[in-house]
Structure to design on (485 residues):
């Protein structure tokens, strides 16, 4: 029901639009809050005995960056990666480093291919997600001291297939983010 | 969507400085992340305080999730079962036969054991469990396998204690906060459990494979006597895990052991029991090793 409500045209959603502006807290804070909530998704009902969950927080972070460039400041990978490290079970620091490196990589991609279609965005996201998962499992292997078997292939495929869904989630959140709730 | 050209802010000194600082911070982030990563690989317990306080914050969420898990599991299980009903049926039938055979021999052994114990006058010391807890979270996206339970030092839980469910071993506690604790699951490759075959005591150890299965490796090499359906229980060697807890069932014999699946899948259990470490010496030894590990890691770099 809530999805159908939010799918309506903005003028049906809120009658009064004159003299209204988006709430600054929501407009700036929602991307951060949504990514942090996704980091805490490990406290979800499903207890996994194998790495099957796609890295939801990282994917949300990447999708926000791809769809709304400039909304997350370039240093956002540092605090958000740190928060993700608290919950992800990875050795501490891997999130800080990889998320910051992602922001740098996205700067490079922006520099090189400024005008991208959806397909190219998907391609960029696939490359970054695959690299992220591979490096994460490499760091985990370093931490255990045993060579880990390559168990991330299904996870990579699921994550890549999930990218279009994440773009829909982000556009839905973006719509909520810009609801004109503040009275001027 | 292409980004706006906010990176060329014209002659505004302030905007130029802001952009420059952003780049400095992100590069610092990569460097600092690398440094922290190296530190946490060399000394894994350094950031335990941050993790356990974060787990404390998320505890109510996990508890709420644990209540609703049974329903969610049912849905996933139903979908999975639909896809591989036939294969599963055949597999289960074979396993039931093997388990039945094992159960008979176990019963015989148990009777014999009871008689012998009565004969010797040995009283099995009562081993009250430390705490009963919910499994409230797990590292679903990482290759490391951890779970979080909602009991901590306040309930008497300390690092090194074994955690079990009704049907078998779950793992051992590695970090304990005030009211949450982090459990290293049996499927983590870092967790090595000494086991023996339930019916004849064939010694082996179980190591996690990180993909939800475990590797069973025999200690004596040679002709591999492991058959599909063999049940392995903890042997008590090493003193950390009490003997006799089911750990794994062999599914596919390999050259030097077998691949197995867990006796107790953490996903199927809402409640787990934290037990005391089997022998006090083992607990002291575990703590000493932890301390020494920390000390040598501190002096090493």
């Amino acid at each position: 029901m809530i999805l159908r409500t939010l799918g309506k045209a903005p003028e049906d959603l809120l009658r009064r639009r004159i003299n209204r502006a988006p709430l600054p807290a929501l407009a700036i804070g929602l991307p951060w809050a949504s990514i942090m909530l996704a980091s805490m998704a490990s406290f979800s009902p499903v207890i996994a005995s194998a790495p099957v969950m796609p890295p939801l927080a990282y994917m949300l972070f990447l999708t926000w960056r791809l769809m709304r460039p400039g909304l997350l400041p370039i240093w956002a990978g540092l605090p958000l990666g740190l928060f993700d490290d608290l919950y992800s079970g990875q050795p501490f620091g891997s999130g800080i480093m990889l998320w910051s490196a992602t922001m740098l990589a996205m700067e490079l991609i922006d520099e090189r291919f400024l005008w991208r279609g959806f397909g190219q965005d998907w391609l960029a996201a696939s490359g970054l997600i695959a690299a992220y998962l591979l490096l994460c499992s490499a760091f985990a292997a370093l931490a255990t001291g045993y060579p880990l078997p390559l168990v991330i292939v299904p996870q990579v495929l699921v994550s890549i297939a999930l990218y279009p869904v994440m773009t829909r989630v982000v556009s839905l959140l973006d719509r909520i983010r810009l609801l004109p709730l503040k009275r001027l | 969507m292409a980004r706006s050209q906010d990176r060329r802010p014209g002659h505004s000194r302030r905007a130029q400085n802001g952009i420059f600082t952003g780049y400095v911070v992100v590069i610092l982030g990569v460097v600092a992340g690398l440094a922290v990563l190296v530190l946490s690989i060399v000394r894994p317990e350094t950031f335990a305080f941050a993790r356990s306080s974060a787990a404390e914050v998320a505890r109510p969420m996990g508890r709420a999730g644990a209540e609703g898990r049974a329903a969610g599991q049912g849905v996933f299980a139903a979908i999975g079962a639909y896809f591989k009903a036939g294969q599963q049926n055949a597999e289960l039938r074979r396993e039931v036969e093997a388990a039945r055979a094992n159960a008979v021999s176990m019963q015989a052994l148990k009777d014999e054991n009871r008689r012998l114990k009565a004969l010797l006058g040995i009283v099995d010391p009562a081993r009250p469990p430390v705490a009963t807890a919910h499994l409230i979270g797990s590292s679903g996206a990482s290759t490391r396998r951890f779970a979080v339970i909602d009991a901590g030092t306040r309930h008497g839980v300390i690092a090194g204690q074994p955690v079990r469910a009704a049907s078998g071993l779950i793992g051992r506690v590695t970090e304990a906060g005030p009211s949450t604790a982090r459990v290293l699951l049996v499927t983590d490759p870092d967790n090595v459990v000494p086991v023996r075959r339930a019916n004849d005591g064939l010694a082996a150890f179980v190591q996690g494979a990180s993909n939800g299965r475990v590797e069973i490796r025999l200690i004596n090499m040679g002709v591999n006597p492991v058959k599909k359906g063999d049940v392995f229980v903890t042997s008590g060697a090493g003193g950390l895990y009490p003997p006799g807890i089911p750990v794994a069932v062999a599914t596919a014999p390999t050259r030097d052991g077998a691949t197995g699946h867990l006796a107790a899948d953490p996903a199927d259990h809402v409640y787990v029991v934290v037990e005391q470490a089997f022998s006090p010496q083992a607990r002291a030894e575990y703590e000493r090793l932890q301390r020494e590990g920390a000390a040598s890691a501190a002096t090493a770099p």
In short: Helices of chain B lie at 13-42, 48-83, 85-120, 280-299.
